[in-house]
Write a sequence for this structure.
């Protein structure tokens, strides 16, 4: 059972998905893909969760010819014989609620008005995204997930899975993530949102397919892109090299390679991503907080049997290692079985997506160890 | 001689200021203020240079009633009995070329067309800014400056002064600065510029006083503001505290204090600063490079007698300490007399502007030492 993109739809007017905001959502569609075979006792499923602008295409499929379906966003990690070995595990990757890559989001039709949701789409939380994923896992007939794995906003979903459905998660690998967004992360997200919302084409979220707020979305992506890299990586990759010229322009075109790169990344992003989805998903990430003073949800993991592998990267300044340490401390405080590793990498937050032998062997080794442990 | 804002104008069609770009500029006006008295042999003048959005008002004047002229941007450091003691020194602070606070910039009238320059204003460099300041210092009848002091983009001007006019600078204090902008700094500046240039009111720089690109400029300022703070400072100041509400809005208003703060800072900035000036000054900072491989201008300091005090701050991630160390190494390589201090501060880049006893006593002590050294 190896499948290209499929969709799963649930919830109707009488049985809507109840969201954290108190609002109802129906119908709810999730786009997902699977790799490998679910074993007969359905105990080898690994759910991979994507970061904010990702999709269900974590890796290519054996039958992909790459002509219309490029490599996946974690091609180095997921596949036959790789860190998450699709010869052994049944891998599922689901697109998140609120996104624009096949799952229900603000770009979809509001069944009540018959028009595109826009800002009428209810605000969803990380817990809401995980609620919808739970329905998909139920639909696939899986009672317990062998593993839940994801980085960045995907890592938040990993942690939310453990907190919301502790008995369904045998092992969890949150990478380059946090229990809650810092003020710095909220600040960057807010500036990205503002850059979209000041674009007159945004039209209070009511733009058409033909006239999206491309310029604002491109600037938002440029901001994001800076935060995914690091000072060192940008120095190594670009330094002060000029782009296609020997001398300064003494004008406002791109002089430096780093400027061209960011402008290119911004322009590329608007061809594949929806501006309103960016607003919704960044807000979900900002709201995420498993360690609220008044109600630390992380404490629901008290005496949980889930095995954790927490991974951070030295040059990640979006979710720095100290935030992973806080997570590890919270898990330890609750008696959880936790391994923690900080990986030396100068590529910044994006390091978790890049090929790295150390990371690969750590993940495959940890997953093997789960198999051998009793439950 | 204690003076509120004055102006100095020089250069005309026949004797223009020749810029690094090869273009001519005339007339050139600099707004400046002075504090204290120039001694009879004119040896006690200290030139203070401001950061990118600063102005000539580094401190209040004894006669200021604060009703229309608030405290200065470095009130804690400059004044009677302070780190830069106006009882001892004749302090001059000049607004920079390209700015919008009284000096010639893109918001002024182009004498050739009779219209506002806009993007017809020539691109100026840090060296051009310093050229204009040199004319002011000549006009004031000062042959040698006792000290040149400034942080951030002001620190770049300090270094440029030393390189361009080594015999005119007895001592130099570059704070929280760099010999050249890193790719990371260029990246942030480019995103700030793009956020202005996508605002339809920008009109290719040709906007009117009545309809400036306020929204784009506000977003640019928000981006800048994040880079002036630090993760720790934002955590301490805002954390995840909500603004004027007990619970999430589940909408796109500001939920968190840090969002309100940034939006407030953005809105405040547009009332005092010009969008085109931001474009010009950020570009000047990006172009700045005293250590170019093909021509390291810093080597002009070989056997210079200027005494240097280089200061960095631990949590400054815009111009991190390693960049000050590179500067110190370049100065040492050239046999310069250099003191270096990294100050423990968790406030980020803005730390140089904040009251700090350690910083104050270091600067006053260093300046006293210069007096006692022979030349």
């Amino acid at each position: 059972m190896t499948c290209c993109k499929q969709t799963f739809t649930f919830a109707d007017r009488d049985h809507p998905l109840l969201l954290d905001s108190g609002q109802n959502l129906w119908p709810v569609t999730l786009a997902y893909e699977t790799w490998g075979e679910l074993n007969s006792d359905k105990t080898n499923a690994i759910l991979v969760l994507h970061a904010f602008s990702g999709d269900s295409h974590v890796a290519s499929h054996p039958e992909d010819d790459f002509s219309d379906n490029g490599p996946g966003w974690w091609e180095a990690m997921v596949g036959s014989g790789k860190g998450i070995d699709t010869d052994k595990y049944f891998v599922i990757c689901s697109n998140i609620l609120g996104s624009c890559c096949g799952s229900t989001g603000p770009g979809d039709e509001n069944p009540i008005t018959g028009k595109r949701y826009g800002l009428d789409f209810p605000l969803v939380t990380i817990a809401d995204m995980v609620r919808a994923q739970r329905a998909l896992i139920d639909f696939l007939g899986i009672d317990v997930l062998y593993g839940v794995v994801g980085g960045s906003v995907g890592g938040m979903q990993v942690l939310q899975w453990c907190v919301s459905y502790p008995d369904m998660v045998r092992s969890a690998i949150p990478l380059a993530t946090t229990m809650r967004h810092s003020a710095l992360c909220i600040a960057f997200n807010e500036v990205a949102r503002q850059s979209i919302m000041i674009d007159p084409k945004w039209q209070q979220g009511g733009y058409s397919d033909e006239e999206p707020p491309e310029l604002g979305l491109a600037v938002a992506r440029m901001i994001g892109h800076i935060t995914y890299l690091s000072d060192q990586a940008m120095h190594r990759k670009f330094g002060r090299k000029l782009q296609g010229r020997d001398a300064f322009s003494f004008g406002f075109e791109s002089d430096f390679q780093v400027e061209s790169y960011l402008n290119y990344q911004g322009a590329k992003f608007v061809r594949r991503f929806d501006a309103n989805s960016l607003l919704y998903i960044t807000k979900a990430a900002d709201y995420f907080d498993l360690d609220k003073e008044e109600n630390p949800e992380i404490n629901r993991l008290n005496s949980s049997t889930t095995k954790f592998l927490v991974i951070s990267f030295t040059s990640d300044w979006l979710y720095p290692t100290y935030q992973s340490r806080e997570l590890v401390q919270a898990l330890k405080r609750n008696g959880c079985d936790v391994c923690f590793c900080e990986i030396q990498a100068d590529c910044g937050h994006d390091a978790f997506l890049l090929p790295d032998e150390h990371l690969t062997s750590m993940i495959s080794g940890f997953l093997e160890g789960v198999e051998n442990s009793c439950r």
